[in-house]
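Hey, can you fold this one?
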Amino acid sequence: MRDGRPYPEHGLATKDWAMIPPRQIRLDTLVTTKRELALDTLLADDSTFYGDLFPHAVQWHGELYLEDGLHRALRAALQQRTVIHVRVLDLDALMPTDPGRVR
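Sure. Predicted structure:
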């Protein structure tokens, strides 16, 4: 668990995320970027009614950071699921690091 995003701002809007096809990701490979969990959101039946059905993650320096969808991921874990469908923005591919920099 982290407090905040370790990766640079990507500028994607909600409609931009919709262009990324979801893929299966193991829950144990996701690093959260939020410290707080709202119990009322976790228990709400319609928590994704106005948003994307799929969580959003950013791949940065080989790690997958869960940017949006913490409650959906936790619900999946509570249902004893090990994978979840996630839209992944691969910043590693979009913003290659300097050749001399060690990851």
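The chain has four helices and five strands. Let me know if you want another pass with a different chain boundary.
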